[in-house]
């Protein structure tokens, strides 16, 4: 296989180099994939690492990511692709893009809420980076005790604390770390360090310290998974009975 690949190495290099340019085909004018707007009518072009390398205008990008606030996006600054965030203040600071102002709605999987609460910010740890997300809690279901913790867990964000959490990790991220820890003996420090590098390879930006919160969340997640798999979720009394068995009341 390597001998067959070697004559094509230059082709691979050329095509991969095109991913660092605005257009992969210089013969065509930059065009927004979803709406067809072309270069002269688009202020800035964006692309999403998770969705694909096709170009998007800002309006199409925000519309298409209303339900996906944790995607990694980049914009063309005239010379190269620069990282930005969907959520965050829609301004620029010291020449750097802070964000596009997207606000995610909890309790409705991203769709609008008739009684949305004030905007808050949350550090969300995902398997390909650390994000600062602006979001709103849902306020339209007070009758069924739909708490803020319920809303976070429903969307797959595991909170680091139970009182006004400011940091979460996605369930996908916790499961990803669990598997790497079991198979590859990867520890929390190495995993968190890799996530910081994925977020900012040069560590030039201010990334919150997530080592201790992530360690707590991973241990709690592993316990919850073991309890679920051993049937404690279906037993009368649930985990309260487990505490009675193994933790003395005094």
Please describe the topology of this protein.
Blueprint: H1 2-5, H2 9-18, E1 45-48, E2 52-57, H3 58-64, E3 73-76, E4 81-84, E5 92-93, E6 96-97, E7 103-105, E8 116-126, E9 129-138, H4 148-154, E10 157-159, E11 167-170, H5 171-184, H6 188-199, H7 211-229, H8 239-246
Parallel strand pairs: 7-9, 8-11
Antiparallel strand pairs: 1-2, 1-3, 3-4, 5-6, 8-9, 10-11
Helix pairs in contact: 5-7
Organism: Roridomyces roridus
InterPro entries: CxC2_KDZ-assoc (IPR041457)
Protein name: CxC2-like cysteine cluster KDZ transposase-associated domain-containing protein
Beta-strand fraction estimate:
15-25%
Mean pLDDT: 87
Low-confidence runs of at least 5 consecutive residues: 91-95
Query: Could you say which overall geometry the principal axes of the C-alpha atoms support?
Result: globular
């Amino acid at each position: 296989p390597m001998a067959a690949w070697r004559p094509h190495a230059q082709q691979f290099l050329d095509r991969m180099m095109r991913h660092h340019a605005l257009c992969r085909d210089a013969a065509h004018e930059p065009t927004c994939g979803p709406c067809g707007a072309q270069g002269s009518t688009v202020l800035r072009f964006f692309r999403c690492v998770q969705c694909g390398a096709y170009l998007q205008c800002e309006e199409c990008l925000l519309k298409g990511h209303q339900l996906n606030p944790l995607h990694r996006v980049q914009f063309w600054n005239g010379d190269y692709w620069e990282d930005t965030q969907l959520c965050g203040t829609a301004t620029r600071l010291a020449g750097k893009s802070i964000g596009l102002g997207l606000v995610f709605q909890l309790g409705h999987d991203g769709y609008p809420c008739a009684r949305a609460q004030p905007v808050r910010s949350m550090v969300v740890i995902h398997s390909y980076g650390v994000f600062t997300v602006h979001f709103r809690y849902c306020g339209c279901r007070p009758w069924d005790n739909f708490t803020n913790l319920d809303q976070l867990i429903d969307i797959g964000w595991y909170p680091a604390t139970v009182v006004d959490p400011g940091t979460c990790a996605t369930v996908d991220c916790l499961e990803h770390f669990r598997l790497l820890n079991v198979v590859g003996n990867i520890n929390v420090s190495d995993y968190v360090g890799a996530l910081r590098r994925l977020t900012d390879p040069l560590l030039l930006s201010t990334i919150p310290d997530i080592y201790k919160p992530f360690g707590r969340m991973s241990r709690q997640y592993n316990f919850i998974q073991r309890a679920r798999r051993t049937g404690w979720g279906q037993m009368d009394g649930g985990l309260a009975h487990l505490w009675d068995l193994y933790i003395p009341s005094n």
